[in-house]
Amino acid sequence: MTTLPILMYHSVAADPDPQVLDLSVHPADFGAQLEVLREEGFTTMTFGEVRAALAGETELPARPVVLTFDDGYADFHREALPRLIAHRTSATLFVTTGWLADAGPFASGRPLDDTLTWEQVGDVDAAGVEIGAHSHSHPQLDQLPGDLLREELTTSRELLEEQLGHRVTSLAYPYGYSSRRVREAAAAAGYQHAAAVANTAAGATSSTYAVPRLTVDRSTDLARFRRIVAQQDLGALYLRQRVLTAGYAAVRRSRSAARTWCRLG
């Protein structure tokens, strides 16, 4: 099996909240990116469809690519969805259930910008976009004790399944952070696979519960986008992000070990 690019988006907005500006993509740029995929003969897949391919159960198309969107910002319904439909493009939206605008008594966490309503999540699902979970309150899952970790993973899946009326088996870790304990908890919570970040291409050797994705953000011009989807020089393109990720991982491991020591002490 060849490798494939799994792209990670967040906001698609002309004027997003400053907190998500760097991770956002302008709607015009997003439309141009979809045009690149069409012109260059890419076939889009959902994250769920990739699971079967990674497991060797199905074959990949000649030029596969996966578009994923994290958090569940309101601009997905307003800006991204119409463009995806117009281009007949498959995608996956990972929803932070506690962040939804009408989460009501289940509201949890602090969304960084306006978010979808449950009705809009239903619209997105009905349009053929795969809906996955992105935890309930968007914490750093690898820093949570076992009971809170299980609650974050099960609450988001159960709420989505109740609202949508079908199974939800895809998960994306908030911030891309996971650990062996988190990955085992994701499997135990009923997810079939999960997305990390890693900023490398996915392939047959990718862990089922830590499938890597490639960041697309405000700094991604069309030249860079073409290199990303062509998987050209990914190490150089994402060198800074990889160095930062390695540093954050070391810090989180230290914090987790310290918490464990405190509980044992």
Explain the overall architecture.
The protein is an alpha/beta fold and 265 residues long. The protein has one domain (6-264): TIM Barrel (Alpha-Beta Barrel), CATH 3.20.20.370. The chain has 9 helices and 8 strands. Strands 1, 2, 3, 4, 5, 6, 7 and 8 form an 8-stranded parallel β-sheet that branches. Helix 1 crosses helix 7. The longest helix is centred in the last third of the chain and has 26 residues, at 239-264. The protein is globular and about 45 Å long. The N and C termini lie far apart (48 Å). The relative contact order is 0.16. The model is unreliable at 256-264 (pLDDT under 50).
Number of helices: 9
Low-confidence stretches: 256-264
Outline: globular
Roughly what percent helix? 40-55%
SSE-based structural type:
alpha/beta
The number of domains: 1
Sheet with the most strands, sense and barrel status = 8 strands, parallel
Mean pLDDT: 91
The number of distinct β-strands equals 8
Q: Mind telling me the CATH superfamily name?
A: Glycoside hydrolase/deacetylase
Radius of gyration from the CA trace? 18 Å
Describe the SSE topology.
Blueprint: E1 6-9, H1 27-39, E2 43-45, H2 47-54, E3 64-71, H3 75-86, E4 92-95, H4 118-126, E5 130-133, H5 146-164, E6 170-172, H6 180-188, E7 193-198, E8 211-215, H7 222-229, H8 234-237, H9 239-264
Parallel strand pairs: 1-3, 1-8, 2-3, 3-4, 4-5, 6-7, 7-8
